[in-house]
Amino acid sequence: MIKHVFTSFVPKTLIIRSLVALCILPLSLQAATDVSGSSDDTSIDRFRGSWIVNYRQTPDDDYRLVLGGIETVNGAERPERSQRLSGQLTRITYQMPETSRTRELNRFFTDQLVGRGAEVLFACSGRACGSSTVWANQIFNESKLLGLVDSQYVITAQLPGQYAVIYIVERGNRRIYAHIDLIETDSAARIGADVLERKFAVVAVDQLPDVALIAQINQQLLQKGQQPTLVVHHQGSNLDDALRQSQRFAEELALGLAEQNEVVPVASVGAWVPSVLREFQSVIMLVIGD
User: What is the mean pLDDT of the chain?
Assistant: First the structure.
C-alpha cells in the first residue's frame, strides 16, 4: 500500500476552497436548493441543473482509493484493488435533473477530467463495477447512492495534487445521483494547477497564508514560465482603512517571503473588489496574467 503524507497549510482550508468555487461560479448557476454550507469544488464542475444534497470536508489519514470493481472473496465483498491515501477529503453528492441519464453523466465527467489533463486510473460500468450496496454503504457511506446495478458508473482519476472518484447511479425511484470524492494529497500542486487553469487561486481567508507553501507554489509556477502575484483584499472600516490594512498584510507577507529567500510581487487593493471579499475581513489570492 502507498501512503501519501498530507501537508496542512492553513487552518481555514475548507473555507478557502468553498470561496474559490463561489468566486468562479456565476450566481445563476448556484442552485438555490443546495444543502446549507455546501459548494462545488474548483476541480470538477457540476452537471447543469444539478444540486448538492450532501456535502462534507474533513482530514482523512486512511482514505481507500478504489482502483477496481467490487469482488467477493471468502464471502466478503471488497474492492479488487485499492490504495491507501492521506489527505483532505471533500465529498459532494449531487442530485440530477429528471431529464438526465447516467450514460450522459459519465461522458460529461469523463470528458471534463480528460480535458483537464487527468489520468484515468480506473473506470467501469454496470455489473462490472460490482455491488451498488458496497459502493453506497462501505465506500462512500451515503445511502442515497444505493441504486440499480446496471445503471452505475465509476471513474477514478488523478489530478495535480489530488485524486477524484466519481460514482453515478440511478435509484429504483428513477432519481439519479452523482457522487464525487476528492482527496487532496499535495496542496502546492493542487493550488498551482488551479492558478494555471483559472489564472487565480485563494490562498488565505482572514489570516496570512503559509509563506513556505507560497514559496513552493511560486517555484512551480516559475518553472512553467509564470510569475504569480499575491493580491491582498481587506474590508477595513472604510476604503482608506481597507487600503492601509491590506498594505500592512502585504508588508508582512513580503517580510516572510524574504525570510524564505523568495521574491513574489504583492499588490494591495483594499476593499475595491467586494465580490471577492464577500463576508470575510480579508482574502489573499495568487494571480497570474496571460
Answer: 89
